[in-house]
């Protein structure tokens, strides 16, 4: 019994001694933290989405406090107003960036991009992409298993079961970029957010040639370049058989929409421009309907009888007919 008591007392003494040692070590090697970090963290939205490039809002707050130049730091969830508040508190210049929104650049719905096979595996875009190109003839299109939907922490993107494509709610989207990272096909990108959620973009990422694209998807870009020629703002480029519209240069003039022969340029929040009617080709006249050619001046003069001709004919000597008496004499 005494041994047991001594053992318990010894362990308690060792525990107290270890606690005292840890306390003094912690005090000795304590790192003083700027109290402004806590205040800045409270100003941030606290989503911990990673859209700013850091692991969480705490790491973002530390970077904002430590760095002298915060022009490269931006919280997409809080936006410009949050960054202005933080910069005002820290006495630094706030970065100014236009709001962005996630955009799905694929128009290959189930109707326009028919399935050629069936994937019998895990319902994951990452898994399916690692095994084969997909269930359709397009190797670049959306797989439709919803990895982007699972990655979104703001309930801003959902896969439409009828079209098989993800759709973004622009009012909920914070441009954190989680869906962009989750998509193995790289069909989601962050584009400029226009007022009233307007947008014009090429809903295709296929780099195949036009003939191959048309066989796989009726809504794909065939790289004809008509949109590039009609754009007056140098906002459209054509590379690797694929047209791309720069949202920072685009002025929403909508001329490219009417020029696209396959409808690969998607327009949101705007009505398309009215198409100008093409002039009807001139009808060919048949031989019976062809108007008679008017005679030329010389021919008309030659064909017109002169006034002198009858007079000369009247004055010309005429052979006298032989009389019956002369015939009888002969």
Nutshell version of this structure?
The chain has 330 residues and is α+β, with helices and mostly antiparallel strands. The protein is built from 13 helices and 8 strands.
List its traits.
single chain, 330 residues, alpha+beta, 3-methyladenine DNA Glycosylase II, Chain A, domain 3, Alpha-Beta Plaits, 2 domains, two-stranded antiparallel ribbon, 8 strands
CATH architecture of the largest domain: 2-Layer Sandwich
Strand order of the largest sheet: 1-4
Strand proportion, as a percent range, falls in 5-15%
Radius of gyration: 43 Å
Note the run of SSEs as H and E.
Answer: HHHHEHHEEHEEHHEEHEHHH
Secondary structural class: alpha+beta
Q: Quick one: biggest sheet?
A: 2 strands, antiparallel
What is the helix fraction of residues, given as a range?
A: 25-40%
| Overall mean pLDDT | 84
* Structural domain count: 2
What is the end-to-end distance?
195 Å
Task: Count up the helices.
Answer: 13
Q: Determine and state the CATH class of the largest domain.
A: Alpha Beta
Overall outline: elongated
Unreliable residue runs: 293-330
CATH topology of the largest domain: Alpha-Beta Plaits
The count of DSSP E runs of length 2 or more, i.e. the number of strands, is 8
């Amino acid at each position: 019994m005494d041994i047991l008591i001594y053992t318990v007392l010894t362990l308690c003494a060792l525990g107290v001694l270890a606690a005292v040692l840890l306390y003094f070590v912690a005090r000795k090697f304590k790192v003083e933290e700027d109290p402004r970090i806590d205040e800045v963290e409270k100003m941030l939205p606290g989503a911990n989405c990673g859209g700013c490039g850091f692991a969480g809002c705490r790491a973002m707050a530390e970077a904002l406090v430590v760095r002298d130049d915060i022009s490269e730091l931006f919280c997409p969830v809080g936006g410009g107003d949050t960054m202005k508040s933080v910069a005002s508190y820290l006495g630094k210049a706030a970065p100014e960036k236009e709001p962005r929104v996630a955009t799905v650049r694929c128009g290959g719905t189930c109707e326009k991009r028919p399935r050629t096979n069936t994937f019998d595996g895990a319902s994951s875009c990452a898994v399916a992409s690692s095994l084969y190109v997909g269930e359709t003839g397009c190797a670049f299109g959306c797989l439709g298993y919803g990895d982007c939907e699972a990655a979104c922490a703001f309930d801003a993107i959902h896969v439409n079961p009828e079209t098989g494509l993800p759709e973004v709610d622009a009012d909920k989207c914070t441009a954190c970029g989680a869906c962009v990272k989750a998509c193995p096909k790289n069909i989601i990108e962050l584009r400029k957010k226009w007022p009233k959620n307007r947008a014009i973009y090429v809903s295709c990422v296929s780099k195949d040639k036009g003939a191959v694209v048309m066989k796989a998807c009726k809504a794909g870009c065939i790289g004809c370049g008509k949109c590039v020629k009609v754009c007056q703002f140098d906002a459209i480029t054509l590379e690797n058989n694929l047209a791309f519209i720069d949202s920072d240069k685009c002025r929403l003039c909508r001329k490219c929409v009417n020029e696209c022969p396959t409808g690969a340029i998607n327009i949101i929040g705007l009505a398309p421009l009215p198409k100008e009617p093409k002039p009807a080709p001139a009808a060919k006249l048949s031989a019976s309907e062809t108007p008679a050619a008017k005679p030329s001046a010389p021919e008309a003069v030659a064909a017109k009888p002169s006034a002198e001709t009858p007079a000369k004919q009247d004055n010309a000597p005429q052979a006298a007919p032989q009389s019956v008496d002369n015939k009888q004499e002969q």
